[in-house]
Amino acid sequence: KALIIECWPSVLRERGETPVAIFRDLEDRGFTLSVIDDAAKTVKTMNAEDAVSFCESHQVANILCTR
């Protein structure tokens, strides 16, 4: 199974969500998180904290979640 999630940490926080908690929950459910870096044309596996940090530094990014 795979999901691609467009992550906007600031928007999630505005709606009362905690971005890291969302992605930790996915990790706890057996998903591996990978950031899709369109500018570098790479996909890099990261933990929840690093993935959210990447999204914050780019305002928005896509996260590939795979099992």
Which keywords apply here?
67 residues; alpha+beta; four-stranded antiparallel β-sheet; 3 helices
What report would you give on this structure?
The protein is an alpha+beta fold and 67 residues long. Helix content is 39%, strand content 34%. The protein has a four-stranded antiparallel beta sheet with strand order 1-4-2-3, with helices on one face. Helix 2 packs antiparallel against helix 3. It starts with a strand and ends with a strand. The mean pLDDT is 95.
Distance between the termini: 6 Å
Main sheet: which strands, in order across?
A: 1-4-2-3
Number of strands: 4
**Low-pLDDT ranges:** none
Give the averaged pLDDT, no decimals: 95
Counted by DSSP, the helix tally is 3
- Report the principal-axis shape: globular
List the helices and strands and how they pair.
Blueprint: E1 2-7, H1 9-14, H2 19-28, E2 32-37, E3 42-46, H3 48-57, E4 61-66
Helix pairs in contact: 2-3
